[in-house]
Amino acid sequence: MKGIDKVRPSDNVKIEVKDAQTGKVIRTIREHNLVVNAGKDLLRDFLYGDAVTGLTHFGVGNGTTAPALAQTNLTGTSTYRFAILSLIETPQQLQVIHILGTGDANGEDLTECGLFTAFTSGTMYARATHTLVAKTAAMTITYTWNLKWE
Fold first, then answer.
1. Where are the domains of the chain?
2. Which value, in Å, is the radius of gyration of the alpha carbons in the chain?
């Protein structure tokens, strides 16, 4: 129908693997996230006026199951959550940034990431899988989400 706006959440994540000594980008990965049903319900509850918690935590893990609407958590056997480093508001967009430092998740084969409303339990808003990054202390990884509403 003409003249009707659609609110459709869409996510994109960029992952930059950097040399910890030089800061040079070694590899860049770009993936599309899936806003899961629980994340859509979170938006619904906010619009309805319920008291909801926004995005506060970022998670990584070793799961390789494709993102699916019914998922409520990362799927790997080894997962980590961290407080989100930065949230930046711009018109019709929220940018979420988190950096895994040299001491975070070392020895893990990272293949998934997600956005959450709490350190434990809480609501998962979105999840993405990506090509394997074997995390070591010699690297940092910057995850940048651009959450847009079109």
1. 10-149
2. 16
